[in-house]
Specification:
By secondary structure, the chain is mainly α. It is 73% helix and 0% strand.
Length: 125
Amino acid sequence: MSKSLFRQWTAFEKSFTLAQRIFELSKYFPKEEVYSLTDQVRRSSRSVCANLAEASAKRRYSRNWISKLSDCAAETAETLVWLEFALACKYLDETTYKELVALNEEVAKLLSYMMKHPAKFGAAT
């Protein structure tokens, strides 16, 4: 079976890595955070990957492509806020926080590039 197109995109690979890293780290967040911070940061980080898959399926129409990538970018912004809360609550140390934020910012830059250059990703222009 060949790789789905979206799995070949660097933005997907990096966002998947970030979501998995957040999942592993959030296992150690306090139990009282399960339905708030833990759930929210996991959901927003995973949503980037899911929206990239949807964007791939909507490449035929440039407005849909941009809309789905815009959703991805919004989820990276939300993920950043949850990471800031995790740092403020001392669930993450400064080094780990900076590592996650750097990867999140890298994903955001890749998404911006994808929106500006849809043809390079097989999207209609």
